[in-house]
């Protein structure tokens, strides 16, 4: 009798256990599955839209397209700062910007830590002449807060008809101060390859060391760089300083073409990787007239971004150049424009850039081989020294102070290349099979 009661209780307990387990499995399984089931989630979206139309105080003024567009903007904005839903008007503006000239201030901006941040000002532009620097935060545009402004909205407010004015409020973290600048928009110049004095003359420096600065990566950058290299080589160049400080980036194909000038054919320059096979691409050097043995130092700082980081990361990985300066910005993602059926479009981050050794650039940046820092004030002084008419625009005391500031990063680069050229020259003078004493 006791055995029968015991086994009966045991069976009952097992049955209860099984029933509870099945219920728990189905409840939790259904809840987990619901997250990835499109139908109940679409039903939820539809239900919210109907509630807004019925009960919101001004719901009668909202169309279904208004609500859907609002939902799409919010949804895409949660992905990352560079992805965005573009309605028809914004998509048309984007196409005009890429097809022709526009009036602007000469700064590239991004959303960093949820704040509209200057990547770098382009030289010889209104923002540059006003003293706007990499890392500055634009907190207001014409009095309107940028706190919840999308990147596209911010760019469209900064751009406008050449000659028109816009007021930006700039917060500088290093000084903890906010300053208003009323700037006149201008057609942004496209010269991207310059010498030390902002010209295209490219004189050879001491110890036959050449200097070239790339201010951005535009359609003519690689071609103009080739011309500059030819001029320096005709003078007997033995080493090169490639200055990418403050260069916010630009076209990917131009970054690849710049790297090709210093690499043998077939060498990997950069790769992109996304979720699909079509988003995984390798870009390799074509090896047309490469300067494979030319000693090089690349200068970078916090304003070096995107295409600049591709060049610095590639030539650093392949031991083709010494990278000197400060940690770069860390903008290494690929945005694709995906047109939609109603004239709108999706700007979507579809891949990330990787250096030849497969280091990710995005949100990491490139760490220099040799770190040499400069203060914001010293960088500003160097800008004034090299901008035509820059020193003349200052009062006498300020002019004298700024004219004495040294570009310590450039000085260090020259010292490195001087040592390399002297050492290699000494080696060549030794008899075959012998190496100069160290």
Outline the fold blueprint.
Elements lengths: L1 H34 L2 H18 L8 H14 L6 E3 L1 H12 L3 E2 L2 E6 L2 E7 L4 H4 L7 E5 L2 E2 L5 H8 L6 E8 L4 E8 L1 E2 L5 E2 L14 E6 L6 H14 L4 E5 L8 H9 L7 E6 L7 E4 L11 E5 L6 H11 L4 E4 L7 E7 L5 E10 L15 E2 L4 H11 L9 H8 L4 H22 L9
Parallel strand pairs: 11-12, 12-15, 15-16, 16-19
Antiparallel strand pairs: 1-18, 2-9, 3-4, 5-6, 5-7, 7-8, 10-11, 13-14, 13-18, 17-18
**Would you identify the regions where 5 or more consecutive residues have pLDDT less than 50?**
9-29, 432-438
CATH architecture of the domain at 193-335 and 350-425: Alpha-Beta Complex
Mean pLDDT: 85
Estimated share of beta-strand residues: 15-25%
Secondary-structure-derived class: alpha+beta
State the distance separating the first and last CA atoms.
100 Å
The H-level CATH homologous superfamily of the domain at 193-335 and 350-425, spelled out, is: 2-enoyl-CoA Hydratase, Chain A, domain 1
Q: What is the C-level CATH assignment of the domain at 193-335 and 350-425?
A: Alpha Beta
Biggest β-sheet: strands ordered side by side in the sheet: 10-11-12-15-16-19
Shape: globular
Query: Per CATH, what is the topology of the domain at 193-335 and 350-425?
Result: 2-enoyl-CoA Hydratase, Chain A, domain 1
What is the count of β-strands? Answer: 19
Helix content: 25-40%
Please outline the major beta sheet: 6 strands, mixed
Q: Please give the count of helices.
A: 12
Report the C-alpha radius of gyration, rounded.
Answer: 29 Å
Oligomer: single chain
